[in-house]
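Researcher: Structure prediction, please.
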Amino acid sequence: MDRTSISRAGLYALRSLAVGLSLVAGLGAFVLFLQFGDADGLDTLDILRALLILISTLWLAWGAIQALIGLTSFSHPPAHDPAAPIRGRSVILMPVYNEDPLATFSRVAAMEASLRETGDPAQIHFAILSDTRNETIARRELVLFKHLVEDRNGMGRFFYRRRENNVGKKAGNIEDFITRSGGAYDYAVILDADSLMEGTTILSMIRRMEAEDRLGLLQTLPKVIRARSRFGRAMQFSASFFSPIFARGLAMMQGETGPFWGHNAIVRVRAFAESCGLPALRGKPPFGGHVMSHDYVEAAMLARAGWIVRLDDDLGGSFEEGPENIVDHAKRDRRWCQGNLQHSRIIGAPGLRAWSRFVFAQGIMAYIAPLFWLGFILASIAAPILAPPPDYFPIPYWPFPYFPPSEASKAISLAIGIFGLLLLPKILIATRAAFTGRAKGFGGARLAFLSTLGELAFSSLTAPVLLMYATRSVFQVLLGRDGGWPTNNRGDGTLTLGESFAASHWIVTIGAVGLAATWAFAPGLLLWLLPVGVPMIFAPALLRWSSLPSKGRLMGVPTEYAPAPVMVLHDQILERWTAALAPEDAPAASAVAPEKTHA
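Model: Predicted structure follows.
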């Protein structure tokens, strides 16, 4: 099955199949739980828990089916001439906000060097768009920009500007450039400060834009690189090994109404300028003010205007870096949570495509789903207290007690089904990787399978802690607390035990109280809830342990065995610049590294 050849009718059929199978799985779990609850008589809590299980299972099934679609289809590049001369002018945009200039500007230099090595005469400029508020870092940006231009002999190809007012954050930063300078360019490649892309990938993206006049935005699938901690390497492995399959399924279902993740993508400047103006929402944050998760909205607006928004999951050579510990991940996720919940104000906007509204709903559901699981756990603990006592003599004057038949098999079947939705897609991905030879890049089939098991164990261990952070984020937004736009922490993410405890003591308390309440009121559930409660009680140790450097081949990725060419270029340039600027010109760590903040 190939996205480039699927018809409109086929696309609708595929979407209907995915939704239908998800509903079947959810309704199946709903019925099983009702049968389990009916063993001693249905009550209101049984029905409530069954509804919560229905919603939660439907959400899990949707993700599993997306993976199955990805497993049964293969990536093929869309029709284009890979050697065609590039006619249009392009600009590569890197927005920065209180970032280390040495790291970010050297990435720009590496991408320019990678483009130069191709020998392609395409007209491509680079623009560094600074929203930096720290004056010390801003001065360093000017020094590093001068060094960049001199080092790459790039006069006339590199540009730098710093906004006086960072209204609209990153979206406003991009919009400001498009408004002021967009008319000079046909295409714009949008990056993050930690983005890195091969020159050949950038050229391929431009050629694909020129081959399809209706293409407004083309999104690549970035791979996480340079992770050092246990948490970071687990996320890196997941992004490299599992995400391409999920992205393939997503690309199949989205068709021409694809995603935009805000970076490592190319836009047609005219389409973006005409379609993607983002007015501030009425009211105050978190639901009002500037649109935070602007990328999803911009993709929807392009699709509304008739432009194609596409995810080309076959494109390699697209990289980014990720957080190195759970606290930094939770802090970033807090911003995404607020942005996605803010989409509840946008989902009903006039003229949007139905699939765009569905994508908004998915994004909202991604953050409120933990509330359904939490609600199910709390309702299960409360059930023995609130449920009426069993009636062993339902028939008056009947001398023998009636013991309802055990429905434990229903509960076990339900548990197996839910765990299957979580585990089976990843096991199948590892199996297919072994048969197709893809596992060779991950150390071979045996090591890739062991890494899959290791990632499953790691994600199971950290899931309760991440669930608590996500739940708190949702409640904070619903209570009207604005999380703002905190600076991303990059570099060494090692946490001390004290920092870990400060960031998670409330999780410890909830875990201990939850297990104590289960022991007191629903002891039969204690064994089932230990995998949730124990990681919460030991959250500080888990945060500390997962932030420590990771060694060994387990959960290794191809870029660790053989770094991508642009990564090698970046390492060489960064080493040369560090030596050239040291010691008097090298930025002080305190000037460029954001303070550690607790999630």
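Model: Strands lie at 90-96, 124-130, 158-162, 187-190, 196-197, 215-219, 223-224, 265-268, 308-311, 318-320.
Researcher: Thanks, that helps.
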